What does this fold into?
Amino acid sequence: MWFKNLALFRFTTPFTMPAEELEAHLAERRFRPCGRTDQMSAGWVPPTSQADASLAHVIGPFMMVTLKQEEKILPSAVVNEQVAERVAEIEVREGRKPGKRERSELRDHVVMELMPRAFSHSRRTHAYIDSERGWLVVDSASGRRTDDLTSLLRSTIGELPIAFPATEEQPSVVMTRWLADGEAPADITIEQECELRATDEEGGIVRCRRQDLAVPEIQQHLAAGKQAMRLALRWQDRLSFTLDDRLVVRRLRFLETVQERAGEIETDDAAQRFDADFAIMSLELAEFLPRLLELFGGERRQSV
It folds into this structure.
């Protein structure tokens, strides 16, 4: 269980709900598959692969939850074809063209008729609460999926006092300075990927991958006023990731040092393997996240 992205939130008040109470709340919104006419469904499932496992998976101060979403896939081309056929039938039978409202009603009927035969697609989004340090960490770089999870969690437990982490210095300003100076803090290595963007609304965007960022062309873009909105970094040879100006961590990889520690725990039991990986990952991030905030001048508290 290794997260690949990090959408970060800070609890504005301590999260004190016991695991047993959280489990009870999650059980009330347990995932149920789409019915015949449902277009989508969402609910909580066990983070592990065991169907009867806890919905709130607890390791020390860390509690993992998993949102499952199912959506029926009904191609618009299929719906449009069916609607067009019915419109044509009305024109032939009644000698008139259906109006806008009638066409909309025809579309609704077609969707309801086709929905039971539609294919479904499901996805899972993991997150964990670090109640000791005041973090909610979502394994997603998608704003929509992150919003889906936090919204359902809020409605499930009644309240969710969280805010995006705020730092004293803007990440884009600091990352731009690193590129301009050609150096970063001692525990940070700048990798070969960035996105530079002009500050005006109609300004250009430059994206580089597998590119030495110390070349003159990069410096010219910086001199022209572009800022680093996304930058690939490595932390202490333990984590590599791409960081954006909103402190969203993308394409996170736990490097050899961390993987060796996980490999020292030998087990063929899937549940034990999950617990070991979750424990190592969450403890590693518990050390990394405060350092991430320090890189940009430290944390500045803000309300939701």
Summary: The two ends are 30 Å apart (CA to CA). The helical segments are 19-28, 76-94, 100-114, 143-157, 171-181, 216-223, 256-263, 270-294. The chain has a mean pLDDT of 92. The first helix runs from residue 19 to 28.
